[in-house]
Amino acid sequence: MPLVDAVELRDVATAALKGAGVPEGGARLQADLLLDAELRAVPSHGFLRLERLVARIGNGVASATASGSHDWRGPGFVSVDGQNGLGPVVAEAALAAISPAAKSQGIAVAAVANANHIGMLAYYAEAIARAGQVGIVLSTSEALVHPYGGRQALIGTNPIAIGVPSADGPFVVDLATSLVSMGEIHDRAHRGQALPEGWALDAQGNTTTDAEAAKAGAIAPFGAAKGYALGLAFELMVTALTGTALGRDVVGTLDADQLCNKGDVFIVIDPVSGQGEAIARYLEILRQAEPADGFDQVLIPGERGRALKAERLRGGVPVADSVWSSMQRLRDTALARGEI
Amino acid sequence: MPLVDAVELRDVATAALKGAGVPEGGARLQADLLLDAELRAVPSHGFLRLERLVARIGNGVASATASGSHDWRGPGFVSVDGQNGLGPVVAEAALAAISPAAKSQGIAVAAVANANHIGMLAYYAEAIARAGQVGIVLSTSEALVHPYGGRQALIGTNPIAIGVPSADGPFVVDLATSLVSMGEIHDRAHRGQALPEGWALDAQGNTTTDAEAAKAGAIAPFGAAKGYALGLAFELMVTALTGTALGRDVVGTLDADQLCNKGDVFIVIDPVSGQGEAIARYLEILRQAEPADGFDQVLIPGERGRALKAERLRGGVPVADSVWSSMQRLRDTALARGEI
Q1: pLDDT tens digits, A146-200
Q2: What family does this belong to (chains A, B) (predicted)?
Q3: Are residues B261 and B316 in the same domain?
Q4: How close A291 comes to chain B (CA, Å)?
Q5: What total of structural domains would you count in chain A?
Q6: Which of A47, A115, A49 is nearest to A259 (CA)?
Q7: Which pTM does this prediction carry?
Q8: Which residues pair with B3 in a beta bridge?
Q9: What is the CATH number of the domain that holds B146?
C-alpha cells in the first residue's frame, strides 16, 4: 500500500467533493472525517467511502449543500432535519447549536434525522471533550448484527462514543456494539483469511469461519447477551428521539442510491468543574497498573488510535491502491471539467 | 429456601427500616427496591442488604430521613447532595425534580453524590419509560473489576440502565459492565462450585476457577476490551458530573461503617411522539425471529425478569433462610422496642 501524506489525501478528497458541488468548508470537513478514520486505522470509515459519497450526490440522495434545519422542541432539545446533507456538515451544525445550550441549560441534545453517514463518532466526542464538556454520541446503521440467540442480521452495529475532559486531554471511547465491523469481514474475505469462531453467521444463520459466506450473513454482537441488549437499547433510544428507521428498514449508508434514514443523537453535558485532575490521576493509575499474563500494559481506550494518528500525520497514511487511484480520478475529473 | 409472600417481605422490611428511624414513605420505597431485586432474581441487590443498611443508619453513615438537597446548575441540570440519605429516597426526589424539567427543556440530568446504594437501576429506568420518557441511569461502585489486560480490581461494576417507552410497555435494559456480579462469585463460593474459565482473577492477579480465591481478586469486564472501555467511560462520566470518587477510592455500598462516596446519574429525555408503535413492532420482529442452534427463542432484554417478577408476585419469593430470619429479627427488635 502506498504511504500518502495526510495533507495531500485531504486535499485530493476535498477537491473531489468540491467537484461534486460541495462548498469549500463542507468539503474540507467531510474530507477531514474520512481522513480521521484513516489516521486511526479504521479504513471502513475512511476514503473507501468517498467514491460512493460522490455517487450519492450525483444520484440526488445526498445534498452537496444542506446543513440541516433546526426545530427546537425545548431549550435543551433540537430536532434536526438533515435535509439529506453530508453527515459531518449536519452534525457540526447540530453540535454548534447544542454546545452553548448545554452551557446555559446544563445539558442539551440534538436528535438528527435525514443526514448521511457522519463518520467516526470519536471525532465528535473528542471535539466535545476538548471543549471541556461531556459528550455521548449514538448512531444507528444498517442491520448487520444478529440478536443474541438469533440467526439473522436484524440490528445495526449501533456505535456509541463517549468523551470526557481530563487534565491530560480528552478521554474518548468509540465502539460499535458488534463484535467486529463488516469492514473487517470484507477485509478478511479479500485476503482469503478465515474468521475466528463466533464472529459471524452465514446467510442461513449457521456459524461460519468463511469470511465470504459471512458477508451475506450476520455479525455477532460484542459481549454476548449484554452487548446485544446495549446495541438494541441504543437503536430504540435513537429512534425514540429522532423518529428514524429501525432494523432492516435502515438504508443509505452502504449504497449509492437510497435516501439515508438512520438517526444520530448527540448529548452534551456541562460537567462540574475541577474533576479533570482526579480523572487524569485515575487514568495514570490504570496506565501504570501491572499487566496480566500475555499483555504488555493496560491500555487506555482511544490512546492507541491517537498515537497512531500522530505517527501517520508525520509519516504518511497507508491507503489501498484502488482507493488512492479512485480519489485521484475523482479529483482529476473535477479538474478537467473546470469544476474546481 | 422458604417461599415468602411478596407483600409480607415488603412489610417486614418496611417495619425493620421504620425501627431504624426511617419515615413510613422512605421505608416503604427502600423496601420496594430491595423487593424488586428479589422479584427479578437479583438477590445481591435484595434483602441481603437490609441488615447492613440498618447497621449503616445505626453507625451514622446513612441518614434515616435525608432526601437530598438540590442545586440547579441550569434549568436542565440539578446537582444533588444526597446528605447520606437512603439511595432510593434521594433518587426518587431527584427524578421527581428532573422529570418535569425534561418535559419543558427537552432533556434534564440529575447528578447525585453522597447517597447510599440506590438498588437495581432497572427500577428507575422502567419508571421513566412508563411515564413516557427515555431514561439513562448510571451508577459507580466499589472497584471489583480488572481492566482488560490488567491483574487488579481497579474499576467499578458500573452498571447502566436504559428505558425506552413502547406501545407494549417499557423496554428496559439494566446491566453491569462486569462479566458477572460479585454476588454470583460469592454464591458459587458458598455452594463450593467452580467458576467458568475467564470470569475472575485471584488476589495475585492470576486466572482462577476457585470462587473462594476470586472473592479476594477481581472480576473480568464483560465483552473484553469493549466492555472495559464502556465501564471506564461510565465511571469517568459519573465523576465528571457528580465529583464523586474513582476506582479504589470508592467505598460505602458493601460495608457498614463508611460514608458512601459513589455517584449516580439520571438523564431523562422527552422523546418525539408516535414512535411507540414502531418500537413495539420491531421488538415483535425480534421476538418472532428464528432462534440459533441451541436457543429456544430470541429474548428481549428485561422480559425474562418481568415474567419472573409477575410469577413471584403471585406465587411467592424464594429467600435464603438466613436472610429471612435476619429480616424477622430486625422487625421483632423494632417491635419490642416499641419503635414501630
Answers
A1: 999 999 999 999 999 999 999 999 999 999 999 998 888 988 998 899 999 999 9
A2: Belongs to the LDH2/MDH2 oxidoreductase family.
A3: no
A4: 4
A5: 2
A6: A115
A7: 0.98
A8: B318
A9: 3.30.1370.60
